Recover the amino acids of this structure.
């Protein structure tokens, strides 16, 4: 009986750890079959503060073509983000790709409309 309880507890622990490390971003892209654009930011960063108006402009123009969301520092740590701002796109297959370019409207909108992915990030 104790062995069964131990196995159940281990399985519950593995499920919990897996649910904490699996990507909600993947869930969104798989659920909606649409690309998801995520801005990881911290409110105290001057560069992040400069990116917010760009992000809002992007949302106004591309909001119907892809899902856009922001994530703060606490949640970003779950995805091992260490520099801010960082933008990721999760493709229709659930793979996460980091935006490689500069933070200006033209470059970011071009990448969103016709993304070039070097490698998927885990």
């Amino acid at each position: 009986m104790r062995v069964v309880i131990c196995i159940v507890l281990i399985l519950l622990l593995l499920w919990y750890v897996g649910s904490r490390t699996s990507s909600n971003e993947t869930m969104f892209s798989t659920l909606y079959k649409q690309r998801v654009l995520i801005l990881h930011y911290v409110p105290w960063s001057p560069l992040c503060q400069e990116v917010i108006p760009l992000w809002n402009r992007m949302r106004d123009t591309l909001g119907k073509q892809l899902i856009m969301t922001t994530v703060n520092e606490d949640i970003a740590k779950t995805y091992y983000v260490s520099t801010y701002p960082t933008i990721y796109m999760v493709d229709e297959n659930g793979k996460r790709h980091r935006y490689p370019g500069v933070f200006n409207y033209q470059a970011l909108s071009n990448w969103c409309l016709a993304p070039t992915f070097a490698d998927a990030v885990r």
About this structure: The chain has one domain: 23-113. The beta strands are 36-40, 67-71, 86-90, 96-98. The domain at 23-113 is CATH 3.40.30.10 (Glutaredoxin). Helices lie at 2-21, 24-32, 46-62, 73-76, 105-113.
